[in-house]
What we know:
By secondary structure, the protein is an alpha+beta fold. Helix content is 28%, strand content 47%.
Amino acid sequence: MKGTAWIAAALLLSIGCGSTQPGTDSEKDAFNKETEAAIARLRGKDPGIKRWFDENSYGYVVFPGIGKGGLIVGGAHGRGQVYEKGRHIGYAEMTQGTIGAQAGGQSYIEVIFFEDQTALNAFKEGNWEMGAQVSAVAVQKGASSAADYTKGVCVFTLASGGLMAEATIAGQKFKYVPK
C-alpha cells in the first residue's frame, strides 16, 4: 500500500501543473490544430454530432486530450478551447480527483455543449463543477441523435487510448480563461 500511496500522490500533484492557456503563438497554433483534429475524429465517429457543433448549442468546450490514471486514488487533467456561437473565446482547464476501485490509465476527448447563454456564462464564471446528475455520451455512430441536455449541458466523450477499469466517486472541476 505504501507504493500505491506514492503513485497516487505523484499523480495528484501533477494534475493542474502548467498553464490553462498556451503561451506562445506556435503553442496556440499547435493546440488549435489538436482541437480541430479532435473535432474531426468526433465527426468521423458519429457524423450526427455535426449538428451539435453547428446548430444545437450556444457554445461548447473541447478537451482534445484528457489524461486519466489511477490505482485506488487517481485523477485526470486536460486543457481545452471554449467556443461561443462557433467563435473561439478562451481556454479551459479540467481537473478531476477520484477515489475508489480503479486501476490503469487512459486518454480521451471530451466535449461539453452548452444549451444557452446562461449555461455558458455559468461555466465562464469559474469554479464550475460537473454535477453528478450529468452523464457523458460515449461517441459512436448514431449516439448523438439520442443525446439531450441535462441542466443546460450535454457531454460527449471518445476514448483515444489506454485502458482503465474503475468504479469511482468523481467530480470534474473547470477553470476558464478568456482568450
